[in-house]
Design a protein that fits this description.
102 residues, mainly alpha, elongated, single chain
Length: 102
């Protein structure tokens, strides 16, 4: 489905097509119909830019305990995959020795 709004209507409302699209995305996010990912993708923005648009409109980022648990789980998995504990301990030991002897 395409939504067509005539240019004269946008001018009368003193809003650009992109601004209107941002307003729609923010509304859909704020009402819970879109996730933040869906909303930012609708307007073609990166995460931080869309969060700034939310802040301009005093719209809170929805983040609950479930989101926190998912983030913590992802961080733990990332740490294990990217920097295994043994490697990070060895690296820390090497760096400490280098700084002590320099």
């Amino acid at each position: 489905m395409n939504l067509i709004i005539k240019e004269d209507k946008l001018k009368a409302a003193e809003i650009t097509a992109n601004e209107l699209l941002i307003e729609i995305a923010v509304h859909l996010y704020d009402t819970g119909r879109f996730s933040i990912g869906q909303a930012k993708n609708l307007v073609g923005m990166d995460h931080i830019s869309f969060q700034k648009e939310l802040a301009k409109r005093d719209v809170d980022i929805k983040y609950d305990e479930d989101d926190l648990e998912k983030d913590l789980k992802n961080l733990k998995a990332f740490h294990q995959v990217v920097i295994p504990k043994k490697v990070s301990e060895e690296l820390l030991s090497i760096l400490c020795k280098k700084f002590i002897y320099i």
